[in-house]
Every structure is written in structure tokens, then in C-alpha cells.
Amino acid sequence: GPGPGAMTRVLMDRGHSVTVVENDPEAVAVLKAMGVEVLAGDLNKPEWSEQLSGRRFGALLACDVLEHLNSPEVTLAALRGLAEPAARLVISMPNVAYAGLVAGLRLGLFDYADTGLLDRTHMRFFTRSSLDKVLMGTGWAPGHWEGYQLPIEQSEFVWCWKQLGEAQRQALVSGWAEFDVYEWMAVATPMADAPVARIKSAEDEIVKLRQQLHALTQRYEQEHASLMEHQKAFSEAKDAIARLVSESESAQASAEAQKRESAA
After folding, report:
1. 5: left (phi over 0), alpha (psi -120 to 50) or beta
2. Is the pTM of this model over 0.90?
């Protein structure tokens, strides 16, 4: 479900080999023009995965896709069968527990629209907890969660939010740290490979930290060298000023002595 291929282009620009499954004819035409491997297929039908029989992938992306499917569990299970050992599945999903949507429910509203959390093409709705259960039920172990936070005042639910009194709004969000999470992103690995994936993730983090340490060390050395140069220049300037003061005092003393002699 790459759509017109914005993320696909980023992946290709980074040197990745990308295979996409898309059912929108216009998007398929755009993707083919990009030179990516395109499988024209409907994720609601099992035939799409049959086209990839015997193949395995190191990373699988289903971003803003699963909520449009009749049975996302079937698709997640199919993706599990296409995963290499310790592969990563990246998904993003609208959060039906968003406080703005809940405010609409408080007013008795659950109106579909052309875009947003209640996009009329959304077939399924999830919270973080329910999505976590679906992932584990289809053989995936979530290892990382990240929430996209959107102030309710900037969402399509701003009208509903303002219809509630201040006390009602405060009561709704009190003790609820994730009230403004508009969408969840999760990174999961096959359940059986989760320990290996955690080790690999730790190793990747160590490499990242070492790179950051190296960059900081270089920056420190450059700044230290610059500081030493500034200290040297400051010391030289201080000595020069001291000499000038001494010379000035000597000249002044000499001038006063000559003045006294002239007066005598």
C-alpha cells in the first residue's frame, strides 16, 4: 500500500531494493515509472501473497494500510510468512482512543469524513492495546512504539473539543499521558526471532552510540584546539597590554621628572 510512492522514493534513494503491492491503477502507473518492482494486487484478497511465494524480505512496511482492510489479521499473518529471520515490520495506525474522537463520542458524534481518523475508507479501528494483541496473535513481537502527538485544537475534532466545558476537558485528559496521540507507529519482529532481533537492535544501538561518541570527540578536540588558540591569543594580548601599561607608566614618570627639572 505505498500509494503514489513518497516513502518508496526515499527507500530507493537510500539504496534499498523495494517491492510494492498496490491496487490503485494510477498509483501503480506512477510506481512503475519510478522503476520499482510493482505487484498489482488487493491486500483484501489472498492472491497478492501468492505472487511472492518463496521470497523473503528483511523489512516490511504497512504504513496507514491495515485500517483499510477487511481482515488485517490475515494480512499480518501473510507478511509473517514473507519475513526473513529477525526481519522488521513497520506499521502505523490511527489511534481510535484519541481524545478529540472521544470528545465527539461524549457529544454522541461518530461521523465519517473524507480524511482523518474517521476516514470513510477505514474498515477497522485500533488502540495501542488492541493493535498490540493483533500483532502478537499473528506471530509478531512489538519491540518499539512511538506516538505521533497532535494537539486537539489542530485536529478535525476541535469543534467537539470546544463544545465540552473546561471541567469536562480536564476530567477527560487527567492522568492520561497519551490523550493526544493521533497515530501509533510500531516496529515488530517475528515472535520466534525476537531475542535475536533484540540483540541485533542492541548491537545497532551500540554502533550508533559509538558513532555519536566519535563525532562528539572530534567536536571536543576541535573546540579544545580552538579554545587553546583563544587562550594563547588572550595570554599574548594580556602580556602586550601589560607591556604597554608599563611603558606608559614609565613614559609618564619620565615626563613628570622632566617637568620638575624644567620648573627648577
Report:
1. left
2. no
